[in-house]
């Protein structure tokens, strides 16, 4: 254990938390914002390392679940803080952040992971279509229920749910998330394990020796510290982001996109490392699991918080984003169903992700 104190991944999260405590609630000059950015990057890299240690100890798919839930829970706290302090302009922050998380995970992370897997490991990336298809179906259902339906309901004007509709969406989202976790970790765990080129689950016994229980607990604590630092430091730089967005005349939705990009960095790097190591199923677990957690945990929390948050809660997507979401669902299904994907699918997903980012800045 004393050796662990000398490692960079141990003291960087602690330094990041110290910087967070010293800077919280203050107006930050430019050089300090730059320092906060460096600490944010260090905390992200440390979070990825400790997430991999925990994942190696508990195995798949529990490791992916730990990182996805941890990031999402803290992301929810960040969204609530931004909505509480953002006034009327913050009414769409939850929608923009959740939709950005779906597009980043289902297109950005999946596309980049496919790129790494197909270029490094061979011509084809192999995964379990049963587990990935179930996860994708859950993502699509949650996104449609919470982000698409509000644009078409008639009980209230605008793309908003009525109180009863919002309560139904919150309960349905949380229930479906709980059902997915049960299926993923208990009833059909084998569907979410990495597979060989022949489609057989990878035998965990053939892997390197897992860390000890003490090391895993140590990494779990540091993972929580690193993720807390990531979101807290992201909150510190968010005023600079919001100011820059307003100064540049960009849409408010850009704030949600930037926040989601920062918060999902640990999962993105973890997914790329898994793809590089020939565990593309783990990359899909991280991507789809993060999207499911983002909707299944954010919407119920925001629905509850809307009781005391100022302003209205807008969840319905606009026409452009509805088209992107529908196209993402179709393309993702065509990618997942065969259980094998090539470089072409990587290019398709990355193009959709690029279209989302471009149209967010230039609607």
Automatic annotation (TrEMBL):
This is Ionic transporter y4hA. The chain crosses the membrane at residues 35-55, 62-86, 98-119, 131-152, 164-183, 220-238, 250-272, 284-308, 314-336, 343-361. It is found in: Membrane. It is a multi-pass membrane protein. It comes from the Bacteria. Residues 33-185, 218-361 form the Sodium/calcium exchanger membrane region domain. Pfam families: Na_Ca_ex. Keywords: Membrane, Transmembrane, Transmembrane helix.
């Amino acid at each position: 254990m004393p050796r662990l104190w000398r490692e960079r991944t141990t003291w960087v999260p602690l330094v990041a938390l110290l910087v967070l405590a010293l800077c919280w609630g203050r107006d930050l000059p430019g050089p300090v914002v730059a320092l906060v950015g460096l600490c944010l990057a260090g905390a992200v890299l440390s979070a990825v390392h400790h997430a991999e240690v925990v994942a190696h100890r508990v195995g798949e798919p529990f490791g992916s679940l730990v990182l996805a839930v941890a990031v999402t829970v803290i992301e929810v706290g960040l969204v609530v803080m931004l909505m509480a302090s953002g006034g009327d302009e913050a009414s769409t922050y939850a929608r923009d952040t959740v939709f950005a998380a779906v597009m980043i995970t289902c297109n950005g992370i999946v596309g980049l992971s496919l790129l790494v897997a197909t270029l490094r490991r061979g011509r084809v990336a192999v995964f379990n279509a049963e587990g990935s298809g179930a996860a994708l179906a859950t993502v699509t259902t949650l996104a449609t229920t919470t982000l698409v339906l509000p644009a078409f309901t008639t009980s209230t004007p605008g793309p908003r749910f009525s109180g009863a509709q919002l309560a139904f969406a919150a309960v349905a989202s949380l229930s479906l998330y709980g059902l997915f976790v049960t299926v993923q970790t208990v009833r059909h765990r084998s569907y979410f394990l990495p597979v060989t080129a022949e489609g057989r689950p990878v035998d965990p016994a053939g892997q390197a020796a897992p860390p000890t229980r003490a090391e895993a607990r140590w990494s779990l604590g540091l993972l929580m510290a690193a993720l807390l630092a990531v979101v807290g430091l992201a909150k510190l730089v968010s005023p600079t982001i919001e100011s820059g967005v307003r100064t540049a005349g960009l849409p408010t939705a850009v704030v949600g996109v930037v926040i989601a990009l920062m918060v999902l960095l640990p999962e993105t790097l973890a997914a790329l490392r898994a793809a590089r190591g020939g565990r593309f199923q783990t990359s899909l677990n991280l991507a789809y699991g993060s999207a499911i957690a983002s909707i299944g945990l954010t919407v119920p929390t925001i629905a509850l918080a809307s009781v005391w948050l100022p302003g209205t809660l807008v969840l319905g997507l606009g026409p452009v984003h509805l088209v992107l979401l529908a196209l993402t669902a179709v393309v993702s299904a065509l990618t997942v169903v065969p259980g094998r994907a090539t470089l072409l699918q990587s290019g398709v997903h990355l193009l959709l992700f690029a279209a989302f980012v471009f149209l967010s800045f230039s609607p």
